[in-house]
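I'll show one example:
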Amino acid sequence: DLLSYISFYLVSYLVVANSWISHYHIFTYLKRSSSLFIMLNVLFLASIVFLPVPVAFFYDYGNQAEVWQVFASTQVVTSATLLLMWVVARGDRLLDSEVPPEYLRYTTARLFVIPLGTLLSIGVAFYNVWFAEGIFLFFSVLGWFLRNIYYRHHPGAGYLEGTTRLCSITDNMTAVAFTFLIATITDTLRSNIHQPFSTTLGAVLAELPVYGFSLLLVGFYWLLHHRIYMVIRRHTMTLIWLNFAFLLFIEFQPPINALHATYPTSQLT
């Protein structure tokens, strides 16, 4: 049952990661902000936080055209907001005056093609939902490869200085994994709420070893990540995507922890 949901999670994870990278491209050369820019950034964050709602429709109703159109509509808001943020940043001169022109062209093209492809997929979904999803995927992937077009003859553009944002999102997502590790114990407490206190306490205590082991495991990986980034001074898009792959499996720790706690004697677990 758990495996059937993983595909929806993976797609949603890639969508959020792609949005984060688009957001990252805007802020790379941002030197100041404005009230309008801040409001647009809040709207972007609101659309990201809302994403689990349309994803939940896939879990409950399957891959239907109407479900996809609801999901794609939220992505139009997210991607269009990012495009507007970029337009405001350029129009109000919020960017560094020394930003490379290749970077301006690439980021503009990337932020334009994604909402365009998403809008197109909404219309195509009236005829074929699979084709609509393919269009969405194509335009999303196209945004990744545009860099090779605009940076082909630009020496030194293969990396960017600093790793602050990579460390920040890693710390935040690791904290989320830490927090949700305790969900198994709280679920046990709720499921035994009508039992005598001693029975409920015994059930909670029985799961503490699994919780402690998982906590140490996530903490160990975070420490390794910390040691790696102590000596990294620059990064590339490849490093960013590898970092997201690392975080993908960190976020898998809570459900796997729950499986281990529920079936402690299972060899497969």
Summary: Residues 217 and 223 are 10 Å apart (CA to CA). The chain is about 80% helix and 0% strand. The radius of gyration is 22 Å. Residues 197-229 form the longest helix (33 residues).
